[in-house]
Structures are given as structure tokens and as C-alpha cells.
């Protein structure tokens, strides 16, 4: 849990692709290592590390899911250290249930990260900010396609806040580029991150008012519909003609054929005998005001149902 994250250069392995075959950007995996006390040994000596491991040993295995969640939280833009440590305690207590001794050990874990975790938190969030900034650059030149949600580096509350504030003040949803622009206003105070989220929300409001009030842009939207024959689902169609902005150009890029399709609809045939069906790729819409994207990553269990869609996998 308190182990250094792998270097950023290893995570950022993006490569430029030709405009004719623009693929989805790879997603950098967040690093987890359970309830590790490696850095205690590095900072305070092997004896203290061994004592810490002995103290933690009765419950460290049970605490692994919470420790991994804490590692992930420390690599998320928009999560303060205080919020991560608070969630860590709640998760540990949930795992402890009614065991009072377990909660004593849980408090020991939390106190350890509160006292010694700031360097790891700063490193993790700075790495996430760099990855998010690189993703925004990829969108600007369209070397590969991604969205803020697909990067898996932002606190979901941030994404919801941007969309709600933008919609209420501008009257439309932000494009992908506008969303990145507002999300990446987030700045980390490496001494004390407690006010970072509040400071960011204030900067979002002023940035919208100063830059976007009189703007318009396209909005990528799609919906699904099944195509049936004699009671059997033989294809799924993704319709994008509800996308906003005029005139809109459409571009589907789906993983199964690695070809671009310039049409409002995308059709994929289901497996002959039913079973799992995967729809992966992205939709790009553009007009004179800009461009917008939706990443599509869905799976269905296809059988003889005639409604849309049937037996969606969680």
C-alpha cells in the first residue's frame, strides 16, 4: 500500500497513429500492491518494518481489498488525501464487521497512511494529472481517441460536476475537448490537498463564464436497437442521428473490423447460435463548431429475445 508507483514513462506508452486509422488510446493501469509496508523499512529500518508487519499480520490479508482501493484513490485526480484516508477507514471497518480488535488494527493502518502517506499521495496524483494532460493532448491532435471517463483517472464526481455546471450555464453538454479543458484545471497543493477540490470547482465556474457562455458545439449521442427475424435477434444497430449540432458528420470506428464507417448508423450481426456479443470502439461527430466522442464498450448475451437489448451483462 505504501509502495512507490512505477515511473510515468512506463505508463505513457501512447503512439501516434495515422488519421485514417485512429484507434482508442490505451488506458494506463493503476498500480496496487495490497497492504505493503516496504517504505516503512526504507525510511525507518528493517526492525521497525518487521514490527509493523507482525502487528498487521492478523488482518493484513483481510484488509487487502481496502488497501488496493486506497492505492487507487491515491492515483485519482480530484480525490484529496483526507478523503482517501477517510474512505480507507470506512472500508476497513466494513471488513471488520463487529470485531473490535480488528478495528484497532484498522486504526493502526489508517494512522500509518495519515502520518507517512503524503509523498505517495502526491506522486500518485501528479502521475494521474500527467496522464490526464497527455490524454487531452491526444484529443487535440487526434492521435488516438479517448474521453475523460475512459481515461479512468478522474474522480467521477468531477465529471458529473463539469457536465452539470456546463449544462446549467451554457445550455448544452460540453464536448470531449471542453470537458478535458475544465477537468484539467485541477491543481494539487502538495503540502495540504484538503481544499483542492473546492478551489477547482470555483475555477470551473469562472472558466465557463469567461470562455464558453456564447459557444455551441456538437454532442455525440447514440441509442441501441435490435433487429429481429422470426423471433431471433440477428443484429444490433447503433443509431447516432440524435446527435446534436447541424450539419453533423459521423464516424464510427469499431474494433471488430478496424474500419471507419461514415454513416449515422452502425450495424453488427449477432453470433449465429447466440451467446456473448461485444461492441467496442467509438463514435465521433463533428461540425463547424468542433468535434465530440463517445467510447463504446458493451457486451450482451444474445438469445431469442425480441426486445432491446436482451440480458445485458452487468
UniProtKB/TrEMBL annotation:
Record-linked InterPro entries: PLipase_A2_dom_sf
A single GO BP: phospholipid metabolic process
MF terms in GO: phospholipase A2 activity
Transmembrane spans: none
Keyword Ion transport attached: no
Keywords assigned: Signal
Residues annotated as signal peptide: 1-20
Keyword Transcription regulation: no
Protein name: Uncharacterized protein
UniProt source species: Paraferrimonas haliotis
